[in-house]
Amino acid sequence: MILVDSSVWIDFFNGRTTRQTDQLAWLLEDMAPLAVADLVLFEVLRGFRHERDHLAARKTLAELTTVDIGGEHNALQAVQHDRLLRAMGYTIRSLIDILQASYCIEHGHALLHDDADFDVMEDLRGLKVWRH
């Protein structure tokens, strides 16, 4: 399973072409096993100004598996990752990012992203990043 971060979805829905949005388009076309985290779903959908764009994005995202990244177990795992990273001098800026990365690490899922905070999680905590 590949989770897709809001950093990629936002660029994708705004029509920005990046390596990650190209990969996402290919994965969607290929009907790859994609998932979106519940909090990423919220983060992405709340950003639309126009109802038409909101509904189009909602339709695209509804076709994917939604995974719950909240909950006690993942929250406690995320805290451990966060504390260890801070002890090494790294601060992950987004609560959602640390929860999503923790979920991916725990379940062995890859993450497609365009956010440097995840690079730290890959290097120091074993996060799998989708790069094809």
Structural topology:
Blueprint: E1 2-4, H1 6-13, H2 19-29, E2 34-37, H3 38-45, H4 51-62, E3 65-67, H5 72-87, H6 95-107, E4 110-112, H7 116-125, E5 128-129
Parallel strand pairs: 1-2, 1-4, 2-3, 4-5
Helix pairs in contact: 1-2, 5-6, 6-7
Structure summarized in a few sentences:
This protein is α/β, with parallel strands linked by helices. Helices cover 59% and strands 11% of the residues.
Q: Fill in the CATH topology.
A: Rossmann fold
Biggest sheet, in brief?
5 strands, parallel
Overall CATH architecture:
3-Layer(aba) Sandwich
Mean pLDDT: 97
Number of strands: 5
Quick one: CATH superfamily? 5'-nuclease
Overview of the structural elements:
The protein has 132 residues and is α/β, with parallel strands linked by helices. It has a single domain (2-127), classed as 5'-nuclease (Rossmann fold), CATH 3.40.50.1010. The protein is 59% helix and 11% strand. A five-stranded parallel β-sheet has the order 3-2-1-4-5, with helices on both faces. β4, α7 (116-125) and β5 (128-129) form a beta-alpha-beta unit. α1 (6-13) packs across α2 (19-29), α5 packs across α6 and α6 (95-107) packs parallel to α7 (116-125). The mean pLDDT is 97.
Which keywords apply here?
single chain, magnesium, toxin-antitoxin system, Rossmann fold, alpha/beta, PINc/VapC_TA_RNase, globular, hydrolase activity, 5-stranded parallel β-sheet, metal-binding
